[in-house]
Structures are given as C-alpha cells and as structure tokens.
Design goal:
Helices cover 73% and strands 0% of the residues. It has 163 residues and is mostly helical. The chain starts with a helix and ends with a helix. The model has no long low-confidence stretch (mean pLDDT 80).
C-alpha cells in the first residue's frame, strides 16, 4: 500500500473530504488529490499538520516506503538488533561473527550459482526434449517387431555413405 492510498484510506476513515483536508492544510484540493494518487508528495512542513489532522504518525503513512528505503541497508530495528550487539562484542566475538558471516555468504552464493546452473541445464534439457520427437521420428515405429528383412534394409540404408 502506498503513501497515497494510506492517506486516502485514513481520510475516508475519519470522514474528511478532500476539500476539507485541503482547507485545513491551506492547499488546493488538487494537491490533496495528487498526493492520494502518488503523483506528488506533501511538503515536509505540511506533514506534521497532516499527521495531527489524521491522528496518525509517519510510520503509518510511510511504512511501505520505509521498507523499500531500507531494502539494501539496515533499518533502525536491524541496527538496534544486530549492529549495536556486534559493536558490543570483544575482538574474539567480532572475529567469530566475521568468519561465520564470510563462510555463510560464500555458501549461499555457491548455492545460488548451482541453482542458476541447474535452471539453465533444465531449460536446455526441456528444449532438447521438445525437439526429440522430431529428431527420433524415424524410430517411432516399433523396430523390434519388424520383420528381419525390413530391419536389414533399414540398416543397409543407415550404413550407406551416400544416404
């Protein structure tokens, strides 16, 4: 859910219309509409007033954006739970964590590489299997039940260098 959809839902929950919210904030109705459709965002100076009017905080309105923001970085919770603990370790503890982290990172990367190779091989195999009926069409008949005479003729044809 985006900032705009949370803003719209909260405004509707409180039975506040776009024109009413716009008037309370001193902006145009189209400004509120553009926020709710995620075309624009409110100025930082308006956010505190918006939180007060909607009886919510930044965490409620921006929760999905903050998750995306911390996707490749430590969120405040992760910082408190991991980084602060790491910093409190002595040299031996840090070395142990660093070694374990390095080994696990290599192990997971190796698994990912193997999975990618398997997927490529499976793709190649499925492509070959889809071609197989065309390549083996000449042998689709039951060769083993054929009369010996026919088997001999087919073998002679296959052995013929001019074939």
């Amino acid at each position: 859910m985006s900032f705009g959809s949370r803003l719209r839902d909260k405004r509707n929950e409180l039975n506040i219309t776009q024109p009413q919210l716009a008037k309370m904030l001193g902006v145009s109705q189209s400004a509120v509409g553009s926020w709710e459709t995620d075309v624009n965002s409110p100025r930082a100076t308006l956010l505190y007033d918006l939180f007060d009017i909607l009886h919510c905080d930044a965490n409620y309105l921006f929760q999905d954006e903050t998750r995306e923001l911390y996707k490749d970085e430590a969120s405040p919770e992760e910082f408190n739970n991991i980084i602060k603990k790491y910093r409190s370790l002595d040299d031996f503890g840090r070395e142990t964590v660093d070694t374990t982290l390095e080994r696990e990172t290599k192990r997971v990367e190796k698994i990912r590489t193997q999975q990618e190779r398997i997927e490529k091989l499976e793709t190649k195999l499925s492509e070959k299997e889809s071609e197989a009926p065309l390549l083996n069409a000449a042998h689709a008949d039951n060769y083993m039940d054929a009369p010996e005479e026919l088997k001999k003729q087919e073998e002679d044809i296959m052995d013929d260098e001019n074939f």
